[in-house]
């Protein structure tokens, strides 16, 4: 898995800054969407939560170049931290979508476990604006 991630990060369409320490993997975990949504519908928070885009939706929009990373603070925070780690410290920082392993090939929980095992360091970002769905699974990977 480690070699697969390093190779995928080298060719990833998401990564714009090269890492000088390509072999040092830093996996950034955290929410990909803020809560509550920016344009909440006129129903309660529980109903709004089920209508937000899934990680698969976000991943697809990123791949197609349709997502403005400033559109959602939680995802933008992860992406900015990834860029800073890559450019300022040279480590090969990545988020779950960067290796471009489709969720139908490996589910999100398995990805989190495998990425954590393959990484030299795992950082879990828990911003106040983040949706906490799945946090229990992800922290169990650490």
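^ structure tokens above, recovered residues below v
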């Amino acid at each position: 898995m480690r070699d697969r991630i390093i190779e995928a990060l080298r060719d990833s369409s998401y990564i714009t800054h090269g890492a000088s320490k390509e072999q040092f993997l830093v996996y950034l975990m955290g929410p990909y969407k803020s809560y509550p949504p920016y344009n909440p519908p006129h129903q309660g928070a529980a109903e709004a939560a089920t209508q937000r885009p899934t990680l698969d939706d976000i991943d697809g929009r990123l791949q197609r170049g349709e997502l403005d990373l400033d559109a959602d603070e939680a995802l933008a925070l992860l992406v900015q931290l990834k860029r800073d780690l890559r450019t300022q410290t040279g480590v090969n920082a990545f988020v779950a979508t960067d290796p471009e392993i489709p969720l139908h090939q490996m589910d999100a929980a398995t990805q989190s476990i495998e990425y954590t095992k393959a990484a030299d360091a795992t950082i879990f970002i828990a911003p106040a604006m983040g949706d906490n769905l799945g946090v229990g699974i992800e922290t169990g990977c650490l």
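Residues 2-141 form one domain.
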